[in-house]
Amino acid sequence: MTDAIAYQGEPGSNSHIACTEVRPDWEAVPCASFEDAFAQVTSGQAKLAMIPIDNSIAGRVADIHAMLPNTTLQIIEEHFLRIRFSLLGIPGTSIDQAKEVHSHIHALGQCRKLIRELGLKPVIAGDTAGSAREVSEWQDPAKVSLAPPMAAELYGLDVLAHDAEDDPTNTTRFVVLADKQPIPSREELAGPAVTSFVFRVRNVPSALYKALGGFATNGINMTRLESYMVGGEFAATMFMVDVEGHPEDTAMIHAFEELDFFTTEIRILGVYPAHPFRRKTA
């Protein structure tokens, strides 16, 4: 197994940038889909996978909430990436020549002000960096891309506008996945920790309220709670949760005992160090 970290997207994407920040000396392996990135790790072709889980503006990344509970991979780390977009065109292009802007649907939605100001026609692409590659291939001054700054150098494009995003606080949270391994003990993970898990509540009145009550009464900070459907049922039957703490902490032991009483299934997805970004936003 090589020191490789897999990600979904094309070279120059935000996921690629996250890989270079977390594992700068490792090979970053682009994959066409999240499933392919997961498979790189389960097959042993890569040691880790870098997966975006939610964005401060766009919310959760589609499908990830359903994929994580169904994989054998385990969260071992988190990373917060400040999202930046540049408006990119072919060399020699001026910004007034641009007519169409190509990018991922989320990037287009996060750069509405510039798009409106320049009167550009937004065109949805499958990937931010992929749109930069396509603009480079088309060699049409009327077509520009919204992509991370790294893509300009990779695809030989000029930066027509920096910091094109509407919100300077735009941030994506990524999780780093590895093949299943023992959960690190509290002694091994001495600092602030995050525990991610999923659970299914019993079919009794106020089950969710009672299941989560243990975290409130034990003073545990819950930073994520999301519901989603499983098995084609039109009901919020599964919940994905992030809490600040380690399962061996006394407060967490009591909270999980109460949670277990009102649930039919609990699965821990990972216990890992809390990223310093959390302290900045606390």
Summary keywords:
aromatic amino acid biosynthesis; 6-stranded mixed β-sheet; 282 residues; D-Maltodextrin-Binding Protein, domain 2; Alpha-Beta Plaits; amino-acid biosynthesis; 3 domains; elongated; single chain; alpha/beta; 33% strand; ACT-like_dom_sf; Chor_mutase/pphenate_deHydtase
Rg, please?
A: 21 Å
CATH topology-level fold name of the largest domain: D-Maltodextrin-Binding Protein, domain 2
CATH class of the largest domain: Alpha Beta
What is the domain tally?
3
Count up the helices.
Answer: 10
Q: Count of DSSP E strands?
A: 15
Strand % is: 25-35%
| Average pLDDT rating | 92
Query: Which of globular, elongated, flat, extended, rod-shaped describes the shape?
Result: elongated
Give the CATH architecture of the largest domain. Answer: 3-Layer(aba) Sandwich
Straight-line distance between termini: 38 Å
Structural class: alpha/beta
How helical, in percent, are the residues? 25-40%
Fourth CATH level, the homologous superfamily of the largest domain: Periplasmic binding protein-like II
What order do the helices and strands follow? EHEHEEHEEEHHEHEHEEEHEEHEH
The major β-sheet equals: 6 strands, mixed
Low-confidence stretches: none
Pfam families: PDT (PF00800)
InterPro entries: ACT-like_dom_sf, ACT_dom, Chor_mutase/pphenate_deHydtase, Preph_deHydtase, Preph_deHydtase_CS
Keywords: Amino-acid biosynthesis, Aromatic amino acid biosynthesis, Lyase, Phenylalanine biosynthesis
Pathway: Amino-acid biosynthesis; L-phenylalanine biosynthesis; phenylpyruvate from prephenate: step 1/1
